[in-house]
Amino acid sequence: MRVNLTVNGERRRADDVWEGESLLYVLRERLGLPGSKNACEQGECGSCTVYLDDVPACACLVAAGQAEGREVRTVEGLADGDALDPVQQSFVDAGAVQCGFCTPGLVVAAHDLLRREPDPSDEEIREALAGNLCRCTGYEKILDAVHSAAGAR
Amino acid sequence: MQGSDAVELVRPDTLEEALAAKAERPGAVPLAGGTDVMVELNYDHRRPEALVDLTRIAELATWSASGGHVRLGAGVPYTRLIDELGDTLPGLAMASRTVGSPQIRNRGTVGGNLGAASPAGDTHPVLLAAGAEIEVASVRGARRIPADTFYTGVKRNALAPDELITAVHVPSAAVPAEQFSKVGTRNAMVIAVCSFALVLRDGHVGAAIGSAAPTPRRVPDAEAFLAAELPWGTDAPLPDSLKRRFGELVAAATEPIDDVRGTAEYRTHALGVLARRTLTWAWDDHRGSVRACA
Ligand SMILES: Cc1cc2nc3c(=O)[nH]c(=O)nc-3n(C[C@H](O)[C@H](O)[C@H](O)COP(=O)(O)OP(=O)(O)OC[C@H]3O[C@@H](n4cnc5c(N)ncnc54)[C@H](O)[C@@H]3O)c2cc1C
Ligand code: FES
Ligand code: FES
């Protein structure tokens, strides 16, 4: 099947998509956007988080065909040219990235939080990022990064 | 994850088209938020002949309130339920807040919870305790199934093969004396080890357990005891003996199993505790409303 969708502001088309295939697979394997990570394929880790029509979702749990005609924004679509989004820059500066596998999903989830709540408390950050697992950092640096991104916006 | 067998994806824009598709091929699997279905597809646990995407059907994603009831479309995601109906359906919103993570709540729906009919599904005890009805439809017509008779076995429900869930009808809370509580191994992203919902309304008590029997179920003896014993219309505190007896009656109604998440014995014990606690909270809500009226 063919799927037409808008990704990071560009109209894209994917061909030969299997009907049961996930949006994550289409983004990574058919559209050349490997930013969103595939770690669990069961909604547990959040490393595949993308905006779907402006709402964060696990791309591994969206059937590609459900994205037909819709708008997807991935971690690749957050930067403005060469200028990283403040959330991305803060993750780098705060040392919130170790192996980096969880980072794209966390960045999208944190980006969404800061749109809704410009100055979140620790508790609000933990709640907003509860669907994103990180095996490396112990989360403290991630909290620091989100606070500093909030300050930078 | 690449497709071996052909699966057809049907993408109806209207409920009518969806019902026609389901009538034509009863084996087709409805796909709403996908938070249950896609896991099964990704892991090859399921290869349905067809999927029917319900997310393009606008009418499934709306709700309306009238005559003391809310009609909540089967496809309204949890996040919207929490944001838009937190005050009107406090018990259901409370249960929704405990589902998965923000990403899961942005996609997951009450219709999907009912379709999956897991004994651990978080909305079930609230729908039971609130006396909700499940609205289902097929090309043959629509009907309403009381939550009481909807759950027919482990992951089984009363839907006929050609039917879709269209909405739930839930009495709205005039007084928000509705509570939901679940036991899990951590705060976020947990499937309930056991759960409990309690609704107090004008002399009527609804109470139901989750994850503690083959299906979510009401606990009639505990409900009848409370309805008779509560000092309705007063703001009197409840004696410990009453709370204890309620907890015992709830625990006695469980029929749990041992599994990786907990032992049967633990579940029975924990439900007695949840019952006493939610009763304290719900009665506090009731007392607050009595004082507000005085
Ligand atoms: C990481 C993770 C955490 C989770 N945590 C929880 C939790 O804490 N509590 C909880 O209760 N659940 C949890 N779930 C399970 C799931 O999110 C819920 O059951 C959710 O309500 C499913 O809704 P959905 O719209 O995504 O359903 P889908 O996956 O689209 O469908 C689920 C089932 O219902 C059927 N169905 C869907 N809509 C209809 C309809 N309108 N008519 C007929 N059949 C229909 C489908 O065919 C399928 O069998 C979790 C899932 C994941 C992946
Ligand atoms: S890969 Fe999607 S949540 Fe883990
Ligand atoms: S940095 Fe390695 S998983 Fe988070």
Automatic annotation (TrEMBL), chain A:
Is-annotated flag, keyword Signal?
no
Gene3D superfamilies to which the protein is assigned, alphabetical = 3.10.20.30, [2Fe-2S]-binding domain
Report the superkingdom from the record: Bacteria
**Residue stretches making up the 2Fe-2S ferredoxin-type domain:** 1-78
InterPro entries recorded: 2Fe-2S-bd, 2Fe-2S-bd_dom_sf, 2Fe-2S_ferredoxin-like_sf, 2Fe-2S_ferredoxin-type, 2Fe2S_fd_BS, Beta-grasp_dom_sf, Diverse_Oxidoreductases
Which top EC class applies here?
oxidoreductase
- Which is one GO molecular function term here? 2 iron, 2 sulfur cluster binding
User: What is the protein named?
Assistant: Carbon-monoxide dehydrogenase small subunit
Its keywords, alphabetically, are:
2Fe-2S, Iron, Iron-sulfur, Metal-binding, Oxidoreductase
CDD domains according to UniProt: fer2
Give start-end of the signal peptide: none
Q: Identify the Pfam families for this entry.
A: Fer2 (PF00111), Fer2_2 (PF01799)
- EC numbers listed for it are 1.2.7.4
Presence of keyword Metal-binding: yes
